[in-house]
Amino acid sequence: MITIPYLTALTTYFSYGLLFAFGQFRDFFRKIFDWWHASNLQGYAPICLGLEDFYIRRLYLRIQDCFGRPISSAPDAWFDVVERYSNDNNKTLKRTSKITSCLNLGSYNYLGFAAADEYCTPRVIDTLNRFSPSTSSTRVDGGTTTVHTELEECVANFVGKPAAIVFGMGYVTNSAILPVLVGKGGLIISDSLNHNSIVNGARGSGATIRVFQHNTPSHLEKVLREQIAEGQPRTHRPWKKIIVIVEGIYSMEGELCKLPEIVAICKKYKAYVYLDEAHSIGAVGKTGRGVCELLGVDPADVDIMMGTFTKSFGSCGGYIAASKEVIQYLKYTCPAHLYATSISPPAAQQIISSIAVILGEDGSSRGAQKLARIRENSNFFRSELQKMGFEVLGDHDSPVMPIMLYNPAKIPAFSRECLRQNVAVVTVAFPATPLLLARARICISASHTKEDLLKALERLEEAVGFDYFQISSENRGML
Amino acid sequence: MANLYVKAVPPADLNRNTEWFMYPGVWTTYILILFFSWLLVLSIFGCSPGMAWTFVNLAHFCITYHFFHWKKGTPFAEDQGIYNRLTWWEQIDNGQQLTRNRKFLTVVPVVLYLIASHTTDYQHPMLFFNTLAVIVLVVAKFPNMHKVRIFGINADK
Question: Does the beta carbon of A90 lie under 8 angstroms from any beta carbon of chain B?
Answer without folding.
Answer: no
